[in-house]
Amino acid sequence: MQPEEIQTAEQVPSSLSPAAPMPTRADRLKLVFWGPDGLRAFWRLAIFVAIVFGLRFGISRTLRLLHIVKPHLPAAIDVSAKTVLLQESLAFLCVLLATLIMGSIEKRSLGDYGLPRRGAFGIRFFEGLVWGFFAECATMFTLYLTGNVTVNGFDLTGSAAVRYALLWLAAFVMVGFFEEFLFRGYPQFTLSTGIGFWPAALILSGLFWLGHMGNPGETWVGGFATALAALLFCVSLRVTGNLWFAIGMHAAWDWAETYFFGVADSGIPANGHLLNTTLSGSKWMTGGTVGPEGSVVELVIVSAVIGLLFLRFRRRELQRLTAPLS
Asked: 3-class SS at 241?
């Protein structure tokens, strides 16, 4: 007789092998919050937003109790450089502190989130200033050539012109710091780790647009131009590797619009500007009460600047477009 064969585990029919254990409710809940690299990007971003709002509420409340700031802005829409400088500085402080808190938890530096110390206020920042100023000049010059702009001399001269120029520059540099670091800093980096750079850029550019739609007299054209400008700043982040160019460009663009030409910025006129500029003609061309950013001309200019950015950085840093994020 043949020796009796011993059936091993490998010989057991697959239909009789034990089934894999079903994930428990706790396991499924864990998958919602945790991924291969720890807490998922969405929840990290939610914590960051909560910290920003908490800090902003706490600082604003404290300043009001100390009577350092007024509880409400005046009903008039006219704003001053000092008001913008104070508000945007406090707003940026909240974003900076929230980023530092998240960075300490994640063991990352400000440079990882687009704001490295190396290169601070360096060549990229000043290059961004030049790009932003000439981009807005291109819009206004096009409107001038088409008969939609009239310059009626100077509103300020001498020392007053210099003082307001510096005040508005400082104010808009803080606007650049706040808005760029809020949308293209920690949120852009964190969302990119979850869904990729360009999907994150599109989502945050959409949120940037929604955030500006509450401005007085804003139109869908102006909103779309704002979203396209946000995407432009994302492109500059990707091809330069940090936010210094974007901060400079953002600041100079607003400075040229508000101070140099003296027209409404997102529907908001400002006190203290160099030129007395009047917009007239079709709302599609001039942007109406919104200002030049509500003009179709601005859409063309922003699109052109995106293309020029790719050309400018194509040789040395264009590989960043496809490089994986660390």
From this structure: coil
| Rounded mean pLDDT, 79-83 | 88
For 284-303, the pLDDT digits (tens) are: 888 888 889 888 999 999 99
d(CA 31, CA 44): 15
In-domain check, residue 3 = no
Write down the pLDDT at residue 267: 74
CB 181 within 8 Å of CB 92: yes
Number of structural domains, the chain?
1
* Rounded alpha-carbon distances, angstroms, from residue 135 to 82, 110, 127, 177, 235: 25, 29, 12, 19, 16
- Can you say how many angstroms the Cα of residue 168 is from the centroid of all Cα atoms in its chain? 20
Instruction: Judge whether 56 lies within some domain.
Output: yes
> In which element (H, E) is residue 20 found?
none
Q: Is 14 a domain residue?
A: no
| CB of 98 closer than 8 Å to CB of 182 | no
DSSP string of 121-165, one letter each residue: TSHHHHHHHHHHHHHHHHHHHHHHHTT-EEEEEES--HHHHHHHH
Beta bridge partners of 138: none
What's the rounded Cα separation, in Å, for the pair 295 and 147? 14
- What local confidence, expressed as pLDDT, does residue 9 receive? 44
pLDDT of amino acid 320: 52
Helices 244-255 and 220-240 pack at an angle, to 10 degrees, of 150
DSSP 7: P
3-state secondary structure of 278: strand
Q: Given a cut of 60, is residue 253 above it in pLDDT?
A: yes
Has residue 16 got a pLDDT over 80?
Answer: no
Q: Is the pLDDT of residue 248 over 50?
A: yes
In a domain, 78, yes or no: yes
pLDDT of residue 216: 64
Q: Domain of residue 159: give its range.
A: 36-321
- 3-class state of residue 39 by DSSP: strand
